[in-house]
Amino acid sequence: PRSAGDTSVLAGLYGPAEVKGSRELPDRAALEVLLRPKVGLPGVAERSREQLLRRSCEAVVLGALHPRTAITVVLQVLSDGGSLLSCCLNAACLALLDAGLPLATLFCGVTCALGAAGAIVLDPTRRQEQEARAVLTFGIAGAEKKVLMATTKGSCSVEEMQQCLAAAQRAADAIFQFYRDSVWRRYSKS
């Protein structure tokens, strides 16, 4: 499980597996991301997040190395205390890394909440998100900190969005270091 504060997501990865029928892609792996809420069935919010997550994963997974196969990432929300989408992105990247799937680069998610006075809070709690004027989540890839995905809820100026992105890009370094430490710890035990 990947947890960020009070938010925890369990990630499972299936594949590359044989795929038949309309999902088969002749030149690359078909990637699917399924987001399961803590209780109940997935709804509109989960479907919307699944699309953002799938597009982010597709941008870095070297799917051409596994044509005509299916890769499914299942993300089960265990608890949602805020910053859920970024926690899901981080859990997905760790699951792909752990499965040994070839990635063009590492990626991560960072959520920022913008307060009424313009203060930026990284990795906000659910309460901080509710009180914020805007909540922005960025998917960030690689050493060059390329933006894979950005989503905004609420209102902010272009300048404020750029400030949030810069803060998220700085925070990405710590997340990538966490990935490296986690993978090193895991493989140094065996």
UniProtKB/TrEMBL annotation:
Instruction: Please state where this protein is localized.
Output: Cytoplasm; Nucleus, Nucleolus
Q: Which InterPro entries match?
A: ExoRNase_PH_dom1, ExoRNase_PH_dom2, ExoRNase_PH_dom2_sf, PNPase/RNase_PH_dom_sf, Ribosomal_Su5_D2-typ_SF, RNase_PH
For this entry, the protein name equals Exosome complex component RRP46
* Listed transmembrane segments: 103-122
Q: Which UniProt keywords apply?
A: Cytoplasm, DNA-binding, Exosome, Membrane, Nucleus, Phosphoprotein, rRNA processing, Transmembrane, Transmembrane helix
Classification of source organism: Eukaryota, Metazoa, Chordata, Craniata, Vertebrata
- Any idea where the Exoribonuclease phosphorolytic domain is? 3-102, 106-170
Instruction: Look up and give the organism this protein is from.
Output: Corythaeola cristata (Great blue turaco)
MF (Gene Ontology): DNA binding; RNA binding
The biological process GO terms on file are: nuclear mRNA surveillance; poly(A)-dependent snoRNA 3'-end processing; rRNA catabolic process; rRNA processing; U4 snRNA 3'-end processing
Gene Ontology cellular component?
A: cytoplasmic exosome (RNase complex); nuclear exosome (RNase complex); nucleolus
For this chain, the family text in UniProt reads: Belongs to the RNase PH family.
- Assembly: Homodimer. Component of the RNA exosome core complex (Exo-9), composed of EXOSC1, EXOSC2, EXOSC3, EXOSC4, EXOSC5, EXOSC6, EXOSC7, EXOSC8 and EXOSC9; within the complex interacts with EXOSC3, EXOSC8, and EXOSC9. The catalytically inactive RNA exosome core complex (Exo-9) associates with the catalytic subunit EXOSC10/RRP6. Exo-9 may associate with DIS3 to form the nucleolar exosome complex, or DIS3L to form the cytoplasmic exosome complex.
Subcellular location, principal: cytoplasm
